[in-house]
Amino acid sequence: MRIFLFSLLAFCLASSASAQEYVDQNGEELVQFSGMVLDGGNERLLPIPYTTVFIKNDGRGTYANLEGFFSIVTHKGDTVVFSALGYDDATYVVPDTLTEEKYSIVQLMTQNNIDLPAAVVFPWPSREHFKLEFLAMDVTPELQSIANDNLSADKLEQLRETIPRTGAENGSYYLRQQAKQTYYIGQQPPMNIFSPVAWKQFFDGWKRGDFKKKKN
Q1: Higher pLDDT, 108 or 144
Q2: Taking the model in full, what pTM does it have?
Q3: Helix ranges restricted to H, 24-166
Q4: Measuring CA to CA, which residue among 82, 86, 54, 89 is closest to residue 68?
Q5: CA distance linking residue 200 with residue 191, whole number of Å
């Protein structure tokens, strides 16, 4: 009998806490807002992992998991913003006429359009004509010097540092960083003192002078 009464009391307290969970301290009703974030430009509707989901003008947010699923508590009428690398931001307004405590959607996002540099059309009708003209071209020492400068290791390294990455490259880098952070959750990350790759990076940076004190 005591066990039954204790279980009934615990159930009542849990039900009361669950009922109060959807009302904030100001008495405003809350909504458990959930859904999936998918790529709307793909016929297969692939999920967009780790999409940032935040409430506008509220300072709260979350992010979708690897399968594109998200869940966050909002107020009725809140504006929710979805943001992901390589995609245009999308917004959704939670209806203020909801009668349920839970609400789910499927949010589609479109990829960014990337403007490519202008294409140069050469006056040769075919690859064979271009090959003949290229072999017959008189390369002056000045042109050869310019070509050597453009293909030097320093010039190529500078281009790698300055040319912006595409949306796919940024998305891949972001996912690798997220996977690296979540891989060691709850445990101490290993030390790189025994890693030959870390030692090589250290010696390469030391040869380049990365650790020298720079003058102001």
Answers
A1: 108
A2: 0.45
A3: 127-136, 141-150, 153-162
A4: 82
A5: 15
